[in-house]
Amino acid sequence: MHRGFSERACxxxxxxxxxxxxxxxxxxxxxxxxxxxxRGLMAEFAKSKVTLPRAKKPLVFHSNGKYDRKKWQEDLLxxxxxxxxxxxxxxxxxxxxDKKIIFEINGGLKTGRHWxxxxxxxMGPNLSxxxxxxxxxxxxxxxxxLEFPGSVxxxxxxxxxxxxxxxxxxxxxxxxxxxxESLPAxxxxxxxxxxxxxxxxxxxxxxxxxxxxRKTREDKDGEEIEDWxxxxxxxxxxxxxxxxxxxxxxxxxxANIGGYxxxxxxxx
Length: 268
What we know:
Blueprint: H1 2-27, H2 31-41, E1 45-48, E2 52-53, E3 59-62, H3 69-79, E4 81-83, E5 88-96, E6 100-110, E7 120-123, E8 126-129, E9 139-147, H4 157-163, E10 168-169, H5 174-181, H6 185-193, H7 202-209, E11 214-220, E12 223-230, E13 235-243, E14 246-255
Parallel strand pairs: 3-9
Antiparallel strand pairs: 1-5, 1-10, 2-4, 5-6, 6-9, 7-8, 11-12, 12-13, 13-14
């Protein structure tokens, strides 16, 4: 009798745990949803409905629409505004964590130099610094952390836009959408796939890849060259080179911690 009761109790506990786990799994953000959110919001434009402060740490905005207005006001007084009411802003990075989604706005707030500014990439003796420090453009944007009471649930891009509705008006970007649809098919495809191709202008690269981490300029034989640099070592670093307002070269390097380019994988 005792054994039968114990087995039934264990079975009941197991089924309860399984059902509970199933609910959690069903609510958890899937890989496809993560990709859709990143692609759907990266480089998206909106109109700011509030004065958005610059902030060294992400500004917390809860999924129920609440946020600490006093703390945001303190950041505004300390660091100034990243955007004012009616300003156009752009989401330049999307990072999905366990209980929050982080949105970098207008390149985030970056003013100082980093250890990777000294990293060099290249092959053999032909190394060049990732950041030469020439005409580098610091960013004065902000970062918002959309926080949830538990794990990030199953969401769509429209769900997130509605949650961020008290801060941003995403309906104002229709002109941008119309502009993209007027472009040649290869450029439309590149913007949709979030990469740069030759012939793009800076605005089109921004739509495809967002704000670069760094910019450098140099004069080569009377021709002004500007490089936009995406990514951080260790990992993939993408160089987008402009000449006369058009992309003339797109190049990827894979920098390890030591600052050298990882050799290509052998072909099989």
